[in-house]
Amino acid sequence: MELSPISKSEAARYMGVKGTPDQAVAELLDRAEKIVREKIHPKYVYIETDVTFTDEGVVLGAMSVPLTGEDIKRHLRGCNKAILMAATLTQEADKLIRQTAVTNMAKSLAIDCLCSAAVEQVCDRAEEEIFSRCDAPYRTWRFSPGYGDFPLSLQKSFLLALNAQRRIGLTVTDSSLLIPSKSVTAIIGMSDSPVERGGRGCTICNMRENCAYRAKGNRCHG
Fold first, then answer.
1. How many whole angstroms separate alpha carbon 131 and alpha carbon 127?
2. How many CA atoms within 13 Å lie on the side-chain side of 40?
3. 42 exposure class (CB count in 10 Å sphere: 0-12, 13-18, 19+)
4. Which of 209, 207, 187 is closest to 198 using CA atoms?
5. Confidence at residue 202, expressed as pLDDT on a 0 to 100 scale
6. Which of 22, 131, 161, 215 is deepest in the core (most CB within 10 A)?
7. CA distances from 52 to 43, 104, 110 (A)
8. Cα distances (Å, whole numbers) of residue 53 to 88, 158, 216
9. pTM of the prediction?
10. What is the pLDDT of residues 14-27, one digit of tens each?
11. Helix (H) or strand (E) holding 47
């Protein structure tokens, strides 16, 4: 997959810029975006799985442990199938951010924030491609471990189900952080009948009361 043009307004927001970036920031983002799009080649994987609701949680046919938490139960209500997916900008993104920081911290920050914006765009594009091939009359939003009360510790089980380390080089630390860092895992519920699309962004985020973006009147979620 090749990167499409990256939203520089989103990247500027990640940089803490309010409103329209000034000329210096705009030019910095233009130069950095060119580098990112030349160097980074994203990857993604997915599988389709059955969904069953039990007293222990939501059970997926592709996973050996149930999905726990009330938020994921609400999110998948009415769904009998789901897509598990993972997307990454690969190790090249982390490498590019580190190498640039040695000589130019401002450019490194711009690249970092562009990559944060880019990985969400990659997920959007991956979702479009997946559902051009899957028969899903109705579906939910993407929902990731760490949202609401959906445990971040389930990252490891997600990656095992997807065989993500072998397929796209995606691993997880003992503290459940993804490596490469510019990566996302998510589940999307599928149904033959209309489903309620639950809350997104700040409304279900565990960090909403201590979020630096919210303190500035911004959001990290587009």
1. 6
2. 33
3. buried
4. 187
5. 52
6. 161
7. 29, 51, 43
8. 30, 18, 40
9. 0.88
10. 999 998 999 999 99
11. strand 43-54
Query: Cα 152 to chain center, whole Å?
Result: 13
User: Packing angle between helix 91-103 and helix 105-133, nearest 10 degrees?
Assistant: 170
Predicted confidence band of residue 203 (pLDDT cuts 50, 70, 90):
low
Instruction: Identify whether the C-beta of residue 7 lies closer than 8 Å to the C-beta of residue 25.
Output: no
CB 85 within 8 A of CB 120: no
Residue 135: pLDDT band (50, 70, 90) is confident
Q: Which CATH number fits domain 42-93+114-215: 1.50.10.10, 3.60.10.10, 3.40.50.150, 3.40.109.40?
A: 3.40.109.40
In Å, what is the CA distance from 11 to each residue of 188, 205, 209? Answer: 25, 20, 23
User: Do residues 120 and 222 lie in contact, with contact meaning Cβ atoms separated by under 8 Å?
Assistant: yes
Token pair belonging to 53: 């609701």
Instruction: Report the distance separating Cα 89 and Cα 170, nearest Å.
Output: 10
Please tell me the distance from the alpha carbon of residue 221 to that of residue 180, in angstroms, as a whole number: 20
